[in-house]
Specification:
Oligomer: single chain
Shape: flat
Helix content: 40-55%
Strand content: under 5%
Order of helices and strands: H
Distance between the termini: 88 Å
Radius of gyration: 31 Å
Number of helices: 1
């Protein structure tokens, strides 16, 4: 009986704390995301053109070991 009362008390305590702190945590997270986006895309003067390269290394597909080329001829039946 004591275990059940403790479990119910802990459940309501966690439920209350979650409702109290969840909006604060979400607001801080969204504020950080918005700040990161603003830093990443700062306003540039009108008419200025910038090119940003994607610096990730992509593996190039090696076509040497794909197979042999077979010449195709259509046969009329």
């Amino acid at each position: 009986m004591k275990y059940i009362l403790i479990a119910i008390g802990v459940y309501f305590l966690i439920k209350y704390l979650f409702r109290a702190f969840f909006p604060i945590i979400v607001k801080k997270t969204f504020d950080k995301m918005q700040q990161n986006q603003q830093q990443q895309y700062q306003e540039k003067p009108e008419g200025e053109v910038t090119v940003e390269k994607n610096t990730t290394n992509k593996d190039k597909h090696d076509t040497k070991d794909v197979g042999d080329y077979v010449d195709f001829e259509e046969v009329d039946e």
